[in-house]
Amino acid sequence: MKKKLVVLTGAGISAESGISTFRDENGLWHNHKVEEVASAEAWKKDKALVLDFYNQRRRDLKDKKPNYAHLRLAELENRYDLNIITQNIDNLHERAGSTRVLHLHGELTKVRPEYGQYEEDFSEAEVFDIAYEDVNIGDLAANGSQLRPHIVWFSEDVPKISKAIDLVEEADIILIIGTSMQVYPAAALYRYAAYSTKIMLLDPASMPSLDHRIMHIRKKATEGIDEIISLIDSY
Ligand code: APR
Predict the structure, then answer these.
(1) For residue 34, what pLDDT is reported?
(2) Number of the ligand 1 atom closest to the C-alpha atom of 204
């Protein structure tokens, strides 16, 4: 019986692939006002500005590649009942070969009608992948509404959080990689783990108020991934 491993990733795992994090020096939120480009209010106020912000990030994603950490995680699927829960909207886990990836905050390469938010609000065909293309004002969904990025914006609900909690509750081991753990509900996910669950964090930053349950390896993702996988294998 394979052990149940849940890996919760944040922007830090994609940093060494050349994708900016949000809150590091020169991160995305240092160069853009969140409320102007990544919130439901921003969408109401200036759809073109929001579409342009995500069009730029989608174009940039095309030339980015999964790094060694993404690739090592993908290999773990052979040995563990592995689910990745990511806060990232990039597709690097999938391009590394991971097949069970839950995107809590949506997916940059997908678009959907601007009305509705939950899975049940859309038919299968209404959420679709445009790869690295732009979506602009006037690009309409089948129901006639403006197409928008399939991304969870600030002040919107996180439709997949209950599925994520179910995975965490069942986990034998939880590995957290590259997140400042400042954005909820993702940041609190580990608290749903059973007391016997082993929890580790791989992140170079110091985290003075980190929960004592979490073993912290202060290294970059590609530098610490081998060490942390050896640890997991030793359990
Ligand atoms: N390897 C591992 N971790 C790294 C690396 C690296 N090479 N470089 C940076 N980090 C770590 C930082 O130390 C920090 O803890 O990645 C984390 C990035 O934190 P944030 O920029 O806050 O990104 P994240 O935690 O993913 O943000 C969560 O906030 O803005 C919203 O929706 C957005 O999904 C995002 C959410």
Answers:
(1) 85
(2) 13
How would you write 92-149 as a 3-class SS string?
A: HHHHHCCCCEEECCEEEEEEEECCCCCHHHCCHHHCEECCCCCCCCCCECCCCCEEEE
- Ligand 1 center to residue 169 CA distance, Å? 23
pLDDT recorded at residue 2 = 96
Pocket-forming residues, ligand 1, beta carbon under 6 Å: 10-12, 15-16, 21-24, 27, 87, 105, 178-180, 182-183, 203-205, 220-221
94-111, pLDDT tens digit by residue? 999 999 999 999 999 999
Given a cut of 90, whether residue 120 has pLDDT beyond it is no
Residues acting as catalytic residues? 105
